[in-house]
């Protein structure tokens, strides 16, 4: 899901799906003006589906991904994450494996609901404090806010161990203070206090940034970000980068420069389930090569954003590829849509947008859209062509990932054949 801490204002529609990635633009930038070079809105027939297949999830640097009916949210890719007491090395009696954690390429850091962490583990996750005050955080997504403490854990994903990682524990019962509101509070939105509200037991943010706020939260007070709390009272706080909620991949000993989300293709009518593989590292092992794949490579902002033009509208730093978004979210005047925001073309329709990367490279991004009402009514949970209306962002969500290998190079980590991160790359066959 789109983490909104990196932007100043959010506008638009997030309807029909609980797993909306959100999005939005800076208050200083218009993201939906009718400017730029017009791109084709639609073609008479759908594009051929991509055909890349996932590598085996049996290797030490991989974990399996599953899309299923675990919750009512469609297109939610889930993995299992093990959390342990800091300093345990990812083994021992303090460890617990948490299933059904959302794989999210547009946020950064691990966030788990306290209710899904056994007490024997939660009590051993060190609470972060400043002086005698508890450090808490609000993270805002298109689907709502997560409010909770910052704790330290050893995080294991397959055989990869990230030691001493600051994570967010959502709805931590040890935190007496309620979610901050008002001028210095969280962004307006639903306070997600249970796994049911999110549709997952937590969020594994493994996008292009090594942490969830960076220099902004280290050097200044950012409303709707970090707080220090005493009893029921909280005030905004500065938190150093090492103590911010951290992308756990950056803490691995090896395979720490990025991730690959690889999903098997699904039928155009949808599927009850879908499978894939989350691979750690890029160009570090035989199963994570980017070199030689002829991938489309797009350098991004640190938050994974790019510019784009779609149907004549220019999107400034508000176009992105997001595994945590259940659909393809965009604004179109060429497609019919239902009152709940689903696009409803009479036949599968190919759409295209021109993305411009941070290095000025361009790529034509092609995707298909079918009748969303029909798809949802099928009872399936995995769709490669589900489109939903949203203004002020071009959110290429989970439908685009099926049949592709999606690479995310993390900023500040060792370079791959694509150079240093941040970047997004993809292979379609």
From TrEMBL:
User: Keyword Signal: yes or no?
Assistant: yes
Concerning Pfam families, the annotation shows: DUF3443
Record keywords, A-Z: Signal
Query: Where in the sequence is the signal peptide annotated?
Result: 1-18
Q: What InterPro entries does this protein's entry cite?
A: DUF3443 (IPR021847)
Superkingdom, according to UniProt? Bacteria
Protein name, per record: DUF3443 domain-containing protein
């Amino acid at each position: 899901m789109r983490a909104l801490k990196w932007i100043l204002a959010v506008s638009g529609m997030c309807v029909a799906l609980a797993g909306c990635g959100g999005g939005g633009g800076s208050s200083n930038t218009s993201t939906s003006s009718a400017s730029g070079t017009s791109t084709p809105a639609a073609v008479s027939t759908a594009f051929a589906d991509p055909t890349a297949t996932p590598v085996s999830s049996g290797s030490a640097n991989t974990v399996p991904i599953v899309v299923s009916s675990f919750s009512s949210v469609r297109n939610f890719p889930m993995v299992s994450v093990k959390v342990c007491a800091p300093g345990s090395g990812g083994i021992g009696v303090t460890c617990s494996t948490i299933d059904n954690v959302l794989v999210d390429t547009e946020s950064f850091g691990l966030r788990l609901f306290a209710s899904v962490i056994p007490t024997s583990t939660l009590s051993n996750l060190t609470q972060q404090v400043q002086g005698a005050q508890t450090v808490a955080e609000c993270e805002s997504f298109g689907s709502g806010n997560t409010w909770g403490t910052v704790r330290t854990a050893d995080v294991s994903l397959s055989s990869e161990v990230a030691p001493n990682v600051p994570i967010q524990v959502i709805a931590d019962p040890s935190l007496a203070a309620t979610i901050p509101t008002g001028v210095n509070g969280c962004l307006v939105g639903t306070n997600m206090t249970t796994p049911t509200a999110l549709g997952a037991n937590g969020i594994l943010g493994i996008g292009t940034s090594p942490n969830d706020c960076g220099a902004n939260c280290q050097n200044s007070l950012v409303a709707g970000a970090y707080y220090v709390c005493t009893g029921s009272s909280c005030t905004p706080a500065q938190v150093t980068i090492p103590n911010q909620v951290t992308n756990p991949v950056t803490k691995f000993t090896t395979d720490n420069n990025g991730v690959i989300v690889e999903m098997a293709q699904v039928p155009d009518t949808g599927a009850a389930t879908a499978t894939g593989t989350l691979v750690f590292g890029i160009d570090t092992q035989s199963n994570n090569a980017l070199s030689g794949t002829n991938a489309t490579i797009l350098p991004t902002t640190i938050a994974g954003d790019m510019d784009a033009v779609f149907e004549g509208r220019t999107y400034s730093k508000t176009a992105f590829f997001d595994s945590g978004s259940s659909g393809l979210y965009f604004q179109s005047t060429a497609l019919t849509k239902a009152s709940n925001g689903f696009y409803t073309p009479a036949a599968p329709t190919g759409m295209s947008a021109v993305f411009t990367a941070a290095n000025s490279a361009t790529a034509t991004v092609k995707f298909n859209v079918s009748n969303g009402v029909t798809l949802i009514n099928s009872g399936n949970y995995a769709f490669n062509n589900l489109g939903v209306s949203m203004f002020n962002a071009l959110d290429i969500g989970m439908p685009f990932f099926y049949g592709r290998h999606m690479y995310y190079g993390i900023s500040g980590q060792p370079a791959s054949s694509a150079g240093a991160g941040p970047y997004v790359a993809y292979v379609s066959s």
